[in-house]
Please model this.
Amino acid sequence: MKIGFIGGGYVGLVSAIMTAYIGHNIVCIDKDEDKIKHLKEGKCIIYEKNLALHMRQVIESRAIIFSEHYKDLIHCDVIFICVGTPSAADGMADLSYVEDALLTAAQIVPSDCLLVIKSTVPPGSCIKCAELLRANGFDHKIASNPEFLREGSAVHDFLHGDRIVAGGDNASLKILQQIFAPLIEKGVIFLGTDTTTSEMIKYCSNSFLSIKLSFINEMANLCEAIGADITTLSEGIGLDKRIGPLFLKPGPGYGGSCFPKDTLALAFLAQELKIPCDVLNASISSNMSRYRLMSDKIKAIVKKESIITILGLTFKANTDDVRESPAIKISQMLEQEGYVLQIYDPVVGKNFSNPYMSRYKISNSIFDATKDSHAIVILTEWQEFAGINYDQIGMHMKERILIDFRLIANLDNAKKSGFTTYAIGKNMAPVG
Ligand code: UGA
Model:
């Protein structure tokens, strides 16, 4: 089958490469000429485990071509729309890129080409988009196929996902089943439904996980106050199969390009429909206030105007993505409070520039970032931070304080090297 992907961003690029990898002919287009130039040269433009390898394979086997021209979609049987749906100021998802992509594609491909929305769109969007196409004289069918790829393990998630969710009429579902047959044969569950339910599954999956995280983050606060241990607590409740062990690790708040945006969009939809969604709203506000709480915890431990070493800038480990990163939000707050920051992240390079933290350059190593500093704050769970040589860095620090917001550090080693250690959900003094 010949399949097009519109949008070579995170979702589009991973999906296009991996759909080629499972045996289809792919055209991946993006209007960003620079991006397409790099892709044509075989340069994988995103940091994602194993993606560069699969990209090379599918380019060599000619299973994929990259282009900036919509006209190259002309012979496609199916086109996946993978463009961005940013949050508008009120929290609503902005569908203008999706609508543009659909209308432009519809002008090029015949009406028997199935148009599939992979971008995360509010429930009801496929129906509205189909109406938009009709209003413009096109009668292509629209289906929904949300993605559940986690950054950092997207290749694995594509090949071994828990499920493939698809929405559409029977004929559209059959086509989607054919596309994903190699995965379905290997045991991935295919769940076919109507488009609105499919769209809703995507929003509810991300929202449910966000609620789980807000809950465990608040329980971490409570553990600190009563002297309980969050790691064992998570294990203890996670062993109950009805709860499950995943997404029970506390942190400085959830971030990234999906959870904050998708929870807000679902809350906005509920508000518009006047359906109370108190649990969802509470989770959103709990997460938003978490960054300030983390910065207050640091303030209660580290004296003003001290030098703080920030370890980790990305929103989680194994990605180079800093969108909605708690690490950046907390760093910004610390800077405003008068602390001097020395930052290290294994993948966010020296060229990192952020309008709010323009003075800061990223250090080359943990060693460089700890020179003369008074305290280390771990904000991303990079594996490198599990093996810090505290003896070595302690020698050139002015004070030895370690605050671990990701439960990744070896606290025993740090203590042996004279550090006073604090870890989230364990021994941090509560702040009001
Ligand atoms: C999330 C979903 O997990 C994917 O299924 C979905 O496809 C994707 O959004 C999307 O909608 O595109 P992602 O944003 O890559 O994936 O990141 P996650 O691994 O889900 O982490 C989200 C946030 O939760 C991060 O800030 C992470 O640090 C935090 N987190 C996660 C914790 O604090 N504790 C945990 O136990 C797990």
In short: The longest strand covers residues 2-6. The mean pLDDT is 95. Residues 212 and 247 are 7 Å apart (CA to CA). The pocket of uridine-5'-diphosphate-glucuronic acid is lined by residues 120, 147-151, 206, 209, 213, 247-249, 251, 254-256, 258-259, 315-316 (CB under 6 Å).
